Amino acid sequence: MTTLGELAKVVRSKNAGPFIMTIDIMFPSKEIYDKVITTGFFTTKLFSDLYNIKSDLIKIYYYDIAHTIKISMPRPFFQGDICDGDNYAGQQYGPLVLINIPI
User: Fold this and answer.
1) Using CA atoms, how far apart are residues 15 and 34, in angstroms rounded to an integer?
2) How far, in Å, CA of 17 to CA of 78, rounded?
3) CATH number of the domain bearing residue 59
4) pTM for this one?
5) Strand runs (DSSP E) across the chain, as ranges?
6) Do 8 and 96 form a contact (C-beta atoms < 8 A)?
7) Low-confidence residues of the chain, pLDDT below 70?
8) What's CA 95's distance to the chain center, in Å?
9) Which domain holds residue 61?
């Protein structure tokens, strides 16, 4: 198995407004992107388990032309909330980098 961090060119997270965050996973080639997609590994359940968010609130988008997977979900706390430890949601990709992808 190979980690997502080894397969992807970029794994990043950021705000998509004060209530939503987005995670972008960009692959260096169509071949790697296609291999990852065909595993069916990226599901709303995976992100629900990782981020403790209801799976029906998570959206996964596949941008074939850019070899990119985009995941949008509610932030655990709205941006600027006193409990918000990551104001720009820039560190939320962390749990994904070491996940093993079965390819």
Assistant:
1) 27
2) 9
3) 3.30.70
4) 0.92
5) 2-3, 10-15, 20-26, 59-63, 68-74, 100-101
6) no
7) none
8) 9
9) 2-75
